[in-house]
């Protein structure tokens, strides 16, 4: 039998011998199961603690919180805190990786269900807890010293308050709007079905739109494609593709391009944090930290930390979200009172311990019991939608 020299042997069709049926196609290669990346859970907690350190140690705008300047009371702590806001960039990088991983092979209904279950129960409780604190003891720093009004509270519960121009109950919630926009963009890809080529195309199109968004007079492009933070999400997706399919020059090129764009964007981002720190920040230090984030997440995906199988890191990762939601306004209230009786560093560690305990309680008493209930209800809702449209209902997943 003659074969075409232009077609690789493994893809050439073999003709059946007379009297025989067509040959069976080769069995697909079974991808070996990869170990859980526990280190990513630890990195998420480090990112949350970094943002916490920025708000508690790095911000000089509100000296009433510490009854003095953090830079003078805790010089080393302030130096660390002044740059630890880069935990947000690490969050976005990990988010690109994790969302891509969790969505592969799933439907839009699965994707929406997973995000609703993951985000909203803890968020609702943390919004109400922060509101309760501010209603009893309104904050005494910044421009907004009054208690939140009912409309602002209710609008915050939707997690869609920022596009409506309604202030966050806690300013730290701004990152949720950035995450939601990423979810919506990626959800479109999930609707088409995730494949290697489609996700690569998604990264390319998003990157191109993020590039031009800042150069054209169209605020909609900036809102949708997030030219400041897109590179961390896209970089995380590229790292996941390395994790799933193996590294190659194309993926390294995407990742390198994302790093180049991110270092440029940091030049503009630094200015806002200098306003809070009340002094100049080093671009070189900032880019060194964000570069370390790229390196560590990539190393984790390529197996450098596979030996780290500490189960407690799962709990650490679970505390990240409620800790992030609770720490700023409530933490400042605690610091303002405890710092009258304790030295600065003991105050910092005591309040950190209190907030970690509060985060664990939210996880244990809210997220764990409500998540399975909400998941069942969301899955039932999407099954009803599919049944109404005459679409096949997929087999139930194991909980």
Q: Using only CA atoms, what is the Rg?
A: 24 Å
Tell me the β content: under 5%
Sheet of most strands: none
> What is the residue-averaged pLDDT?
88
What's the number of helices?
Answer: 14
Number of strands: 0
The count of domains is: 1
Coarse structural class: mainly alpha
Classify the helix fraction into a percent range.
Answer: 55-70%
Would you kindly provide a written description of the structure presented here, covering whatever features stand out?
- The structure is a single chain.
- The model is unreliable at about 1-30 (pLDDT under 50).
- This protein has 14 helices and no strands.
- The protein starts with about 35 loop residues before the first helix and ends in a 10-residue tail after the last helix.
- It has one domain.
- α1 packs antiparallel against α4 and α5 runs antiparallel to α7.
- It is an all-alpha fold.
- The radius of gyration is 24 Å and the shape is globular.
- The chain has helices at about 40-60, 70-75, 75-80, 85-105, 110-135, 150-155, 175-190, 195-215, 220-225, 230-245, 250-275, 285-300, 310-340, 345-390.
- It is about 65% helix and about 0% strand.
Question: How are the elements arranged and paired?
Answer:
Layout: H1 38-58, H2 70-73, H3 75-81, H4 87-103, H5 108-136, H6 150-157, H7 174-192, H8 196-213, H9 219-225, H10 230-245, H11 249-277, H12 283-301, H13 312-338, H14 344-389
Helix pairs in contact: 1-3, 1-4, 1-13, 4-7, 4-10, 4-12, 5-7, 5-13, 5-14, 8-9, 8-10, 10-11, 10-12, 11-12, 13-14
């Amino acid at each position: 039998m003659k074969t075409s020299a232009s077609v690789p042997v493994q893809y050439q069709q073999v003709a059946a011998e007379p009297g025989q049926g067509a040959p069976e196609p080769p069995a697909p290669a079974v991808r070996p199961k990869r170990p859980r990346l526990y280190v990513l859970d630890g990195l998420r907690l480090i990112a949350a603690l970094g943002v916490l350190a920025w708000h508690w140690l790095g911000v000089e705008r509100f000296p009433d919180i510490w009854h003095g300047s953090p830079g003078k009371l805790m010089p080393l702590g302030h130096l660390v805190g002044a740059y630890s806001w880069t935990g947000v960039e690490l969050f976005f990088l990990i988010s690109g990786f994790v969302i891509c991983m969790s969505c592969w092979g799933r439907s839009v209904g699965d994707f929406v269900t997973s995000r609703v279950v993951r985000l909203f129960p803890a968020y609702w409780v943390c919004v109400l807890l922060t509101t309760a604190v501010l209603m009893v003891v309104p904050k005494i720093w910044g421009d907004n010293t009054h208690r939140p009004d009912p409309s602002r509270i209710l609008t915050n519960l939707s997690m869609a308050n920022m596009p409506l121009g309604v202030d966050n109950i806690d300013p730290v919630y701004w990152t949720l709007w950035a995450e939601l926009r990423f979810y919506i963009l990626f959800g479109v890809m999930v609707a088409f079905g995730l494949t290697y080529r489609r996700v690569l195309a998604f990264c390319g199109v998003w990157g191109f739109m993020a590039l031009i968004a800042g150069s054209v007079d169209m605020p909609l492009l900036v809102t949708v494609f997030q030219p400041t933070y897109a590179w961390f999400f896209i970089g995380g997706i590229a790292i996941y593709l390395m994790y799933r399919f193996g590294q190659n020059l194309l993926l390294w090129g995407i990742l390198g391009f994302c790093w180049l764009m991110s270092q440029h964007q940091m030049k503009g981002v630094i200015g806002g944090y200098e306003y809070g720190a009340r002094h100049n920040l080093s671009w070189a230090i900032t880019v060194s930290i964000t570069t370390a984030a790229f390196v560590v997440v990539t190393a984790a995906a390529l197996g450098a930390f596979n030996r780290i199988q500490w189960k407690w890191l799962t709990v650490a990762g679970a505390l990240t979200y409620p800790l992030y939601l609770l720490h700023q306004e409530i933490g400042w209230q605690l610091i303002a009172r405890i710092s009258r009786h304790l030295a600065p560093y003991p105050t910092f560690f005591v309040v950190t311990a209190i907030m970690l305990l509060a985060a664990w309680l939210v996880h244990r008493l809210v997220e764990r019991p409500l998540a399975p209930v909400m998941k069942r209800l969301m899955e039932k809702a999407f099954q009803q939608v599919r049944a109404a449209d005459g679409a096949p209902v997929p087999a139930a997943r194991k909980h």
